[in-house]
């Protein structure tokens, strides 16, 4: 190369650019959790569009955006994250069951609508039922009972839902 300064500058740029990209991605990943805790669906969507990790786990709290949205009862964020592929091992639904407000019941409903089976076991030790987790919230307990009945009725009909599940996001 004719100009050693140009070579040095080019080499430095080659070394630094991945670091800059990595730090901006990490910042995006952290922001998705903040947006989820504020129910800011457009912020979540922007981070995902820009390549952020929907399943990013905060190092300090161990929480993902989905978990943070659940714990703070942010139902629109929960719905959006589930709809766009956020992973769950069903533990988040148990955390939502423990909440005592109507927003927590709504969060549980979104999980059930998304296909989480009513009979799933989880919570501490992995042996708790949803009913046990929700015992401090009467509305959530009633909701779980309705879904349990719906699942039994569906099994009796051979696994066929009457009319199908065609609820829109606004109805959820």
Automatic annotation (TrEMBL):
Pfam families linked: Ank_2
Top-level division of the source organism's lineage: Eukaryota
Ranges for region Disordered: 137-172
InterPro entries reported for this sequence: Ankyrin_rpt, Ankyrin_rpt-contain_sf
Signal sequence extent: 1-22
PROSITE patterns attached to this UniProt entry: ANK_REP_REGION (PS50297), ANK_REPEAT (PS50088)
Alphabetically ordered keywords of this record: ANK repeat, Signal
Record flagged with keyword Protease: no
UniProt KW Signal keyword: yes
Renumbered ranges of ANK repeats: 61-93
Record's compositionally biased regions (Basic and acidic residues): 145-172
Protein name: Ankyrin repeat domain-containing protein
Organism: Triparma retinervis
